[in-house]
């Protein structure tokens, strides 16, 4: 009996991930309002009742995706260490954010769609936990500046600029590839360009 319970648990976990993957595809392409449970079920190759067995509503699926995404998105900023080399800590953060854009473009577009809609699900987090995390890291950057280890920059806008200059490559990838043309890797080129940009900006 124990083996059967474990087997069911593995199947249930697999089905939940299939549903979340299908929902990510639909939400990132259509937005929350434009996505239905029927579309998610079709994308997941499951019946609608089966989807609703695992998740009570479209809203629950959406919130689950956003919570997982936010954990993923915030991890690189949380890893910035006061004891590290300031320029390297910031460059490493930039690179981690660019890598997330390369590896998780659908997640980035899902996040962008949520923000464009006024952050109905993430609003409390953006004004709470995220704001506090950014404030903590901005204070750390301010200390580096005061110690003469970085050029004088606005710490908040430095962090925001990293978001803008990395997530853009996921959210507007089609446009970027069209402009650059075939045979060029936007993410590799961006990595080199942004490293030089921030090294020059932060040099004291």
UniProtKB/TrEMBL annotation:
InterPro entries: Homeodomain-like_sf, HTH-type_TetR-like_transc_reg, HTH_TetR, Tet_transcr_reg_TetR-rel_C_sf, Tscrpt_reg_YcdC_C
Annotated keywords: DNA-binding
DNA-binding region boundaries: 36-55
Protein's organism: Paracoccus aminophilus JCM 7686
Pfam families linked to this entry: TetR_C_3 (PF08362), TetR_N (PF00440)
GO biological process: one example: negative regulation of DNA-templated transcription
Single GO MF descriptor: DNA-binding transcription factor activity
Record carries keyword Zinc: no
Highest taxon, organism lineage: Bacteria
PROSITE patterns assigned to the protein according to its UniProt record, in alphabetical order: HTH_TETR_2
Domain HTH tetR-type: 13-73
Protein's name in the database: Transcriptional regulator, TetR family
């Amino acid at each position: 009996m124990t083996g059967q319970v474990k087997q069911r648990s593995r199947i249930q976990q697999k089905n939940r991930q299939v549903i979340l993957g299908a929902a990510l595809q639909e939400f990132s392409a259509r937005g929350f309002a434009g996505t239905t449970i029927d579309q998610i079920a079709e994308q997941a190759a499951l019946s609608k009742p089966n989807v609703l067995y695992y998740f009570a509503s479209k809203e629950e699926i959406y919130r689950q995706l956003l919570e997982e995404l936010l954990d993923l998105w915030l991890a690189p900023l949380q890893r910035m260490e006061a004891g590290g080399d300031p320029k390297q800590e910031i460059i490493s953060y930039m690179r981690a954010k660019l890598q997330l854009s390369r590896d998780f473009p659908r997640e980035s577009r899902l996040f962008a769609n949520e923000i464009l809609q006024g952050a109905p699900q993430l609003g409390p987090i953006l004004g709470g936990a995220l704001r506090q995390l950014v404030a903590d890291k901005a204070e750390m950057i301010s200390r580096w500046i005061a110690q003469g280890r970085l050029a004088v920059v606005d710490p908040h806008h430095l962090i925001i600029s990293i978001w803008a200059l990395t997530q853009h490559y996921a959210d507007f990838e089609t446009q970027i590839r069209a402009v650059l043309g075939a045979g060029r890797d936007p993410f590799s080129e961006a990595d080199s360009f942004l490293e030089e940009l921030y090294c020059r900006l932060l040099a004291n």
